[in-house]
Amino acid sequence: MSSNKAQTLLRVLAAVLAALLPLVGLVSLLLRSEFDPHIENYRAHFVVFGFVGGVAFILGYAAGEAANRRGDARVLLLSLAFMATGGFLGLHALGTQQVLFTKEYAGFMVAIPVGLLVSAVFALASAFVDTRPALAATLIRRRSLLRVAVLAAMGGWFVWTVVDLPPLRGQSGEAATGTLILVIAVVGTLIYAISAARYWLIFRHRRNLLTAAIIACFLLLSEALIGVAVTGERKWHASWWEWHGLIVSAYLIIGFAAQREWRDERFRHLYLPSTRERRQEISVLFGDLVGFTGFAERATPAQVAAVLNAYWGVAAPLLTRRYGGEVEKFIGDGIVAVFNGRGDQPGHAERASRAALALQQRFAELAAQHPDWPRMRVGVNSGEVVVREIGGEGHVAYPLVGDTVNTGARLESLAPEGGVLIGAETYQQLPDGAVVEQRPGLRVKGKRDALDAYVLVALP
Prior knowledge:
By secondary structure, the chain is an alpha+beta fold. The chain folds into 2 domains: 10-271, Rhopdopsin 7-helix transmembrane proteins (Up-down Bundle), CATH 1.20.1070; 278-458, Nucleotide cyclase, GGDEF domain (Alpha-Beta Plaits), CATH 3.30.70. The protein contains 16 helices and 10 strands. The strands form 2 sheets. Strands 1, 2, 3, 4, 7, 8, 9 and 10 form an 8-stranded mixed β-sheet that branches. It has a two-stranded antiparallel ribbon with strand order 5-6. Helix 2 (42-70) runs parallel beside helix 10 (238-260), helix 3 (73-94) packs parallel to helix 7 (143-163) and helix 9 (209-230) runs antiparallel to helix 10 (238-260). The longest helix has 29 residues, at 3-31. The mean pLDDT is 87.
């Protein structure tokens, strides 16, 4: 056996032994009752699990923001898994007897295994989502609905518990005091184990700290559910505290690993291959101020900055909030915005065109108040591009590459002052009744063939 293979085998064995240590400790506590003392501390329970629940939920929120920004389904599913665990941990802490509530509610007591099962479903989906690219795109389109569903499940569980409806009515332990909790624990254990195994395969292909932390987290959560299944009525004993501690450890590991990653793209190493490089149908909007160089020469730097701030202060919220585009960048007196960058806007050409018209309307109002300010010209083009990750630690970009983008920039340079010039592909996707002025046979720099374009006047 070669030295490299021997070292790899030793690492794997060490990892397996480390993963099994919590279970060895749990079995030892259960077999030797003298090692499993009764440790009852309500306030410590409330503080520790409230804190860890908050950490898990914040991690989920941060991962969700990254998933939303990059359109990555794997990180989206992980964010939902973290949010589910964190939320139900928080409910469990909230229901700690003698802190906020005088009585013990069964729903709060069993909140952890229920939350872990919900989380396990998302964890499993995240592990295998790369095998179903079409599903990944659907999940991104439904991301808001998924988040709302997770939050609604938490709120519903809280109300159900406090109202004391069946089957949560009455006393019930967190551990395996009933068949349902035992089934939840067994099913959750298997799902987390399968998810960890799948992430191990991902880790072998692309080794990094965060993926290793995900594996460790899922293994610890699966072992915690084993603790749920076997500790029985050992509430407040050391064995009971141990499986709670495994959950705490799982999310502290994830938090540590995420903190060690580069802050601007903490979850980049978990992105799907299709996030790192994919073909995408998009619409791109280019805007540029006409005669800005001459204006900047005549004006003071403070006046130039005030003009740009006024224009971009109008453009950014209009493009992003009203029409759902993404401002790719400001380039001096120019702006670039993208529609359907995540594949979740089927009517992207119409969105981009309406955004361009609205932009010109708002800019015309600004120009009417300031006659000496330069006017904007806008170009819109639609088509296929390649979105590809470029860069590394320190700066990573996901630029749009392709003729669609280059042509959009050329169309903007030929657009009339205060007007919108759109490409033929964009025009073909507009609804009937669009008012345009045809501009056939345009010659643009860098392209051999002439282009057909249209000055967009109005949309129905």
